[in-house]
């Protein structure tokens, strides 16, 4: 019996892992969209909400921020040109067809489904390339580790994009295994279309193109450079993204600043250059990967998985792709935790490889029972140390919901509201109003631009504004003024 064959028991094992992963991801699935990184989540959800209300015009995605805060240019239409809005359209359409839950829950559930697909692909690849034990440990790691779980159920395009990329790798992997020309063509088309979709949803998936090149090399050796299909693959995957990037140049007001992603982070001291500075290595490799994502102790299994000499280097190429991504987008990765979603598959796989190596070489250690207990202890401690941080990601400020409810009741749908949230659009989304997430000029000038109300939680600023503008509502927490 070939241990690398996907057998009936693998369907059972994988089904159990996916069921466990689903249960973990349903934790607090119905909380308001004000949890961790809500400012980015609500921008994604707002595009979907506007699709549902105004039609699915994917070439003109809109969100709630109609100010110049994000791009430096007036954006009265609220254009949002970041990723091509495939993910937004998917969960918006699902919600419109099956409005059995809120739009926010639907968006989270769609993200969850994409994450389950990632687990399935990881399991299959680990089984084929290594061993069933590796596949089980890798799948379980992705299924239950707190960081993996939280960012598998947020309303962000990262997990869907990663899923499309992993599906593309899966189909090209099948392409390398078959000698049937008809199946080769099918797998080639499916893989190239999935990778093209991944690039449109999140351009950072391009780094996994290194895995695509490796698979081509493994099938044809260096003869792949003479293969027409290789260059056709590049065209199919890159052309839609290039056309999209060229198209959005016509809407510069809808393109947020992004130059900072490579080397800049915002700190309490202002913008700082972190490119290849010691702080970058501390934050990414110690604070994030070691402590937050792997919970400290799993780093041992991860490193062990890397240094154990493999028969094939497929997973090391996967890891290399993720590492290059980290080093290119240093600013984005240090600034925002969700940027590390892209590196999660190789982390889970090498944890699996390290754990299986310990078990398969049990005779080297004191006793097999001690080895098993050690692995269980490592997973348990890592889970809880990671959880103690990630559990706070599910929290949300209840006062923000109350503010939104009051403002929504006192204003009309067509009113435009300014909030002093320093660029955070969460309150705009919760109020279900268009406006600005920051006071970017004097109130009188904002009034001339068509803004109707100003909402502030700065009591000193409120006292000043009360001298000139009508107070619609005021309590100890915030004030709403009519301009």
Which short descriptors sum up this protein?
globular; 5-stranded mixed beta sheet; 7 strands; mainly alpha; 2 domains; 483 residues; single chain
Describe the secondary-structure layout.
Layout: H1 8-25, H2 38-54, H3 86-97, H4 103-129, H5 132-144, H6 146-150, H7 158-177, H8 181-201, H9 209-220, H10 228-248, E1 264-267, E2 270-273, H11 278-293, H12 298-307, H13 314-328, H14 330-335, H15 344-360, H16 368-390, H17 398-410, E3 416-419, H18 426-431, E4 434-436, H19 443-448, E5 453-456, H20 459-465, E6 470-474, E7 479-482
Parallel strand pairs: 3-4, 3-5
Antiparallel strand pairs: 1-2, 5-7, 6-7
Helix pairs in contact: 1-4, 1-5, 2-3, 3-4, 4-5, 4-7, 5-15, 7-8, 7-9, 8-10, 9-13, 12-15, 13-15
Report on this structure:
The chain is mainly α. The protein folds into two domains: 8-30 and 81-392, no CATH class; 398-482. The protein contains 20 helices and seven strands. It has helices at 8-25, 38-54, 86-97, 103-129, 132-144, 146-150, 158-177, 181-201, 209-220, 228-248, 278-293, 298-307, 314-328, 330-335, 344-360, 368-390, 398-410, 426-431, 443-448, 459-465; strands spanning 264-267, 270-273, 416-419, 434-436, 453-456, 470-474, 479-482. The strands form two sheets. It has a five-stranded mixed sheet. Strands 1-2 form a two-stranded antiparallel sheet. α1 runs parallel beside α5, α4 runs parallel beside α7 and α12 (298-307) crosses α15 (344-360). It is globular, with a radius of gyration of 24 Å. The N and C termini lie far apart (76 Å). The mean pLDDT is 95.
């Amino acid at each position: 019996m070939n241990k690398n064959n996907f057998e009936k028991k693998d369907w059972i094992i994988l089904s159990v892992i996916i069921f466990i992963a689903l249960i973990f991801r349903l934790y607090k699935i119905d909380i308001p969209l004000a949890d961790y990184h809500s400012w980015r989540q609500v921008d994604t959800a707002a595009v979907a909400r506007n699709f549902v209300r105004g039609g699915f015009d994917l070439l003109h995605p809109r969100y709630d921020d109609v100010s110049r805060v994000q791009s430096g240019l007036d954006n009265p239409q609220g254009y949002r040109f970041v990723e091509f809005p495939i993910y937004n359209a998917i969960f918006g359409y699902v919600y419109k067809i099956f409005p059995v839950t809120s739009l926010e829950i639907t968006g989270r559930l769609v993200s969850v489904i994409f994450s389950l697909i990632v687990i399935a692909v990881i399991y299959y690849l680990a089984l084929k390339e290594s061993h069933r034990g590796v596949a089980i440990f890798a799948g379980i790691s992705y299924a239950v580790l707190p960081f993996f779980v939280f960012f598998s159920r947020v309303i962000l395009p990262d997990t869907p994009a990663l899923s499309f990329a992993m599906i593309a790798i899966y189909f090209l992997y099948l392409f390398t295994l078959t000698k049937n020309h008809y199946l080769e063509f099918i797998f080639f088309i499916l893989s190239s279309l999935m990778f093209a979709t991944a690039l449109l949803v999140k351009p950072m998936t391009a780094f996994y193109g290194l895995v695509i090149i490796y698979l081509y090399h493994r099938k044809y050796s260096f003869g792949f450079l003479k293969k027409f299909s290789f260059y056709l693959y590049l065209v199919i995957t890159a052309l839609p993204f290039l056309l999209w990037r060229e198209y959005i140049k016509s809407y510069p007001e809808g393109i947020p600043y992004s130059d900072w992603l490579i080397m800049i982070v915002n700190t309490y001291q202002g913008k700082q250059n972190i490119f290849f500075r010691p702080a970058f290595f501390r934050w990414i490799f110690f604070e994030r990967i070691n402590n937050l994502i792997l919970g400290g102790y799993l780093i041992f299994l991860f490193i062990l998985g890397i240094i154990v000499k493999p028969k094939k280097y497929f997973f090391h190429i996967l890891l290399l792709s993720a590492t290059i991504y980290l080093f290119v987008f240093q600013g984005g990765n240090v600034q925002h935790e969700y940027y590390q979603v892209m590196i999660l598959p190789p982390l889970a796989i090498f944890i699996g490889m390290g754990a299986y190596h310990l078990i398969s070489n049990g005779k080297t250690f004191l006793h097999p029972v001690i080895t098993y207990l050690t692995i269980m202890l490592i997973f348990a401690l890592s889970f809880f140390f990671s959880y103690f941080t990630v559990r706070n990601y599910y929290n949300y400020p209840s006062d923000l919901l109350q503010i939104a409810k009051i403002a929504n009741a006192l204003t009309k749908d067509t009113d435009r509201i300014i909030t002093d949230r320093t660029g955070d659009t969460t309150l705009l989304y919760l109020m279900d109003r268009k406006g600005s997430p920051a006071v970017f000029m004097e109130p009188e000038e904002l009034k001339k631009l068509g803004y109707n109300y100003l909402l502030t939680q700065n009591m000193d600023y409120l006292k000043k504004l009360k001298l000139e503008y009508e107070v619609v509502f005021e309590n100890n927490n915030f004030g709403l003024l009519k301009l």
